[in-house]
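BUG: 3D viewer hangs when loading the predicted structure for this chain

Environment: internal workstation, default settings.
Expected: structure renders.
Actual: progress bar stalls at 90%.

Input used:
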Amino acid sequence: MSIKPKVTISVTLTGNTLDLASFQGEEGATCVFFHGYGDLVVAQLYTLDESRANTVKSYDDSMPEGKNGTVLAFSVKAGKFYLGKQEDVTISADLNVTLNMVETTEKAIQDAIDALDDR
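Structure tokens produced before the viewer hung:
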């Protein structure tokens, strides 16, 4: 079995962006996650990327290169819901995914989260 190299990825949010959440959402309103297909967990990306506005990154050299999955971001603030999602993302060195955050419903966010179970 070969061990895949670990790389750093980032996610930039556009559109209706709110404050990016810290670890476990203790501060900020926008949470960003990567779900690898076939995995039972998600990885929260919350480290601010100081080189880009509205951008978070994984821990350096922590994401398995070649892993496929979904990047999902959502916000809930002042009774409004926002969602950004990109499926079929393949992790590669210096990958930057841009998600456009659009106003949506609580049900749409829950449906997007539930859909991760099917992958």
